[in-house]
Design brief:
Elements lengths: L16 H5 L4 E3 L9 E5 L1 H6 L4 H5 L1 H7 L11 E3 L3 E3 L2 E3 L7 E8 L5 E7 L16 H16 L6 E13 L3 E11 L5 H9 L3 H15 L9 H23 L1 E2 L21 E2 L23 H20 L3 H12 L2 H16 L9 H14 L4 H12 L8 H11 L5 H8 L10 H12 L4 H10 L10 H4 L15
Antiparallel strand pairs: 1-3, 2-8, 4-5, 6-7, 7-9, 8-9, 10-11
Helix pairs in contact: 5-16, 5-17, 6-9, 8-9, 8-10, 8-11, 9-10, 13-15, 16-17
Bound molecules: adenosine monophosphate (AMP) and magnesium ion.
The site of magnesium ion has 3 residues, from loops.
Amino acid sequence: MRHHDDVVNASLRLESTYATAFPALAHPWSADPNPAPHAIVINNELAAELSLDAEWLASPDGMAALTGVAAIPGSMPVALAYAGHQFGSYSPRLGDGRALLLGELIDSTGRRLDLHLKGSGRTPFARGGDGRAALGPMLREHLIGEAMHALGIRTTRSLGVIATGESVRRETLLPGAILVRVAASHLRVGTFQYAAALGDRELLSALARYAIERHHPHAADDVCPPLALFAEVVKAQAELIAEWLLVGFIHGVMNTDNMTISGETIDYGPCAFMEAVDPLTVFSSIDEGGRYAFGRQPSIGQWNLARLAEAMLPLFDDDANRAGEVATEVLGTFGPTFSRHWHVGMRRRLGLVEHRDGDEVLAEDLIALMNAQHLDLISTMRSLSGHLRGDTVDLGSWTERWESRVTAEGRELATVAAEMDLVNPFVVPRNLAVQHALDTAVAGDLSSFQRLTHELADPYTRRDGVDDLALPGPAAPGFRTFCGT
Ligand code: AMP
Ligand code: MG
């Protein structure tokens, strides 16, 4: 391992509060050296937010720092320990098998953020894995994650993807890469499951305090801060999953180790955007039972949060029965919170500012209609503002119901239409376009990938030349996304 303290410029300094406070949950480890690292993509916008010099990041010294092979001041690289329910079955020891937390950086607004690598080599948690990541899936995480961010959906970010210069063996030999991820933190439901299984109540309690301080500081003022933390996580996740459903996002692997305490979307594997509306839509090749189908995401979210409650139970009350009761009560807020958030989102998307009786049914009927007619969610929603400007839409009598509801508010229709266009995306990552961009990027031509990255950063502006992102692809039954790990 190459260590030279002079390579890192003063702008990159890290802290290691988590690694220091939780040695039982963070295994000190170092990244593998790479033969010829070079940046495939650097996120200049995010670098600026983090007060990092993007040009320096892409330089050889920057590459050495970002791939974990050169020491960064304040950094104590660790592989994180966590457990998790994967497709419903419990694994007591997952952890970062191919990832490292380099440390925490403080952004320009004073927020503490994790700087994390994926694909940096085998760790003690690697089990049978090779510790590596292939370029395609890391570019997918970059592309989709940044698209989610542009849509205003809470997510981890990608600071960039670095080709390692090494090949990784999957079904074939593929170029290897490291994703440099920035997150509010990497605390997951699975982190609490792991801590709970250690049977050390003080550790669990300290973990809850740490999560409160970092993510949900108001919970500290509650009579029972751990329970208030749980309630905040339930709220954050219910709202997050409502946001997913509003844009047709399917995470694909909602295991408890892929669900954050912060409420950010994390771990873009076989994720995809639904085109024809159908709650049973599944793209992931590994989700044979459809456990993580589009419309099952709310109930799976709640199921995962029940696992979090189980892990945190000893912190809720010394009396186990009482702890179970209060946890159940809080868990029960998931459904109403999800539903409220989804309906508020739909109302805005339908151009309504008031809340009237019948709005919920109006929104639900539209989804049912799209489902029955196999309509694309995004372009159908977007077409509604066009209808207010005189275009025809093919939604039968629903259209008149909606129109009279909009008219009842007495607002100028041009204004309503303009406001709708600020919340109904014009472009989203369409499956065929994404696949094409990734395939060509892996083959060495980055032009499509760069174009998509650029276009998806502006989801709401109507423009020409982006049909591949604005419109659903040709019906591709059996289209599958692969975890690609
Ligand atoms: P993921 O599906 O990316 O959320 O990963 C699930 C678990 O498998 C985590 O513990 C990962 O660290 C581990 N894992 C995935 N791929 C690899 C790999 N190639 N080498 C080692 N561990 C891996
Ligand atoms: Mg994961």
